[in-house]
Design goal:
With 745 residues, the chain is mainly beta. It has a single domain, classed as TonB-dependent receptor, beta-barrel domain (Maltoporin, Chain A), CATH 2.40.170. It contains 7 helices and 44 strands.
Length: 745
Amino acid sequence: MKPLNTLKTIKYRTICITLIASSLSYMPEISAQSSGVEPNIQEVVIISSRKPIAKSDVVGSVSSISEADIAARMVNDLQQLFATTPGVGVKRRSAYGRMYNEGISIRGLGGKRVNILIDGARVPDAYTGYGRDVVEIDLLKRVEVLKGPSSALYGSDGLAGAVAYTTKDPSDYLDESQFHLSSGARYDSSSDRNKFSILAAGVHGNLEAMVQVVDHSLSERNLHDDVIMSANGLDGAQESLFSKFKYNLNDSISFTLTVDEQNWNGDWNVATDVGMSYFPSVVNTSSSLGQDRGFRDRYSLDIDFNINSIFAESASVKFYSQTTEQSQMTTKEKQTFGRGPQFGPTSMVAEISNYHFNQEVTGISAQLSNSFKTIFGHEHDLVYGFENESIETQRPRSKLNIDAMSGVTTSIFGADRFPNKTFPDTEVKRIGIFINDRINVTDRATLVMGLRYDSYDLEPTPDTLFNNSNVSRYDLANIDDSSVSSKVGIMYDLSDNISAYMQYAEGFRSPDYESANLTFTNFAYYYSVAPNPDLDSEESSGFEMGLRGTIDSHQFSLAAYDTDYENFIDTAVTGATPQGIVVYQYVNLNDAEIKGVEASYQTAISDNLLLKFGANRTFGTSDGEKLINISPSKAVLSLAWKSSNEKIKLNGLSTIVASSPSDLPPSCGRGGCNNLVELGGRVTHDIFGSYQVRPDILLKFGVSNITDKKYWNWTTVSGKTVTDPNLEMFVEPGREFNAEVKYTF
């Protein structure tokens, strides 16, 4: 299904759902609402061992964000979602950019070095505009972050860690009632975003079902009042349709079908493209209009079994398919001054470019779990299984000039012939086999061991469009590789309520379609990019030790980690042609080390007041120089209060960020070297609240950055220089107001 058609489809389905739901009889609100105050001592997580386990029993660092926390903080994007999670940052789009949140980093590493899963399936990549960051917050029941190398559990891309989104089930809205219908509306001032949602859930016999539709509309991001520049104009929309059907065949077998569709579009007035350029010729761009379109769907079928055999107590099989289609079209009006601006333009053209990125992911996974006791009296909690995944990726590009006076069109720009592809169509096949065992060695000691084997096969398929880009006729890279990842950890109960742990874990990231075979030549700027068939996988090995416990109403955790990284993949100059063309390749560069500490604490000050605190400090070096992507130290303090009747709830949040390093190496290129931007420390405050007017009406409000602080997020601007003319476009919003109303029929 194409993106534009999907827009109409979702709106049509919205109307249908509304009409059907309104014809049903009134049912009262029955879902339980968390107070957001009580400490959740028995919190359960899945990401650490691929099955539910008490968070207090996890060997290693895991952070979790509950549905109640998401609601209490009025979370609306990824930066807000992970704002209170130590060691996790989000790179936000700039006000002149053509995308929203750009990615998640864990302990200083982000992008494809972080494995992102939704309901156990990998999220497709992104190349232009929107992509792995697009997730409907309203759908999330739980978000978990596994920090540190995670390939022993989840295979490739688990270099820095993994993020797992878990969506809601129909039963999350149903209790004794057979039906639930609610709708909500929200406004955020930072981007003039309006959101409308409607959700219906019900049960009939052995069948549970839910459907949710969410519609967003937004404009350009509002900059801080102290910023002189104007953001590029945007008229955008994002729509999602989510449905889940669960059928319990009997007490032993259940089927769950999930359909998740995300659609987005943005029309930009790209004012930052407008102006004069002087190389390789004098050109004035008088206007630039952008059209971004994107679509992602996910279909999955989960079959769960209660086996109770000697080999397994339970098993699950997942079949899934995910597709993403993205396009970025830009129309520019240009005047070329061949004799100089004083003599007037020698040509006037309309330049139209349309770049696409398409990816389809299909896979099957199976997992079995078993608990048993050996003849030596040791209790084992075993999880094992396999994953088989195929990823097909395409990157077609088109571009043409239309002469305003003659009407002549051309698709040849110097040595560039359009349409083309900067890397060939590529199929990647992944197969993984894993086993994870949790062993109660003694009453106080628990041993965790994990092992996984992954095979990786990258096969490019060049065609005419790719050959149009590969003018230098470079040979392509076919990569066939494998990896073995392990982890081992031990936890020891110092007392009934306090435990200490140590863990060693490994991670890797296989070369992808871009790093292996990105290919093009730019004769105007005298450089080319060549494939590299000799790329090795990036690797990580991390050691971590920690302490966690509960004393009365006080919960705390402390972790220290040290992770070594090898074979980082990045671009480097590898040669030059006799014609003076500088050749770049993706190569395996220097090793790196990242280490740090993280701490968290929470306590119930009273029955109505909960205090939470989290902090982290991270260090990173490579060849004796500091890594620029390491975020400054950060601490977050929050207070959650509720009235005795739980009708009124308040959440206050204070964020303290240290100054960025002042001794980072400069950024050097053809134009010389420039110092990197430095950021001072900051303190910001947010407050959120809710009021249950009636059992069927809930009001929420929020104010972010109460003091209207002007600041930048290091995860967003790291690597940028002090001479960047658009630096202020990356500033975070000033004081932001949020309001939301929810009505339950």
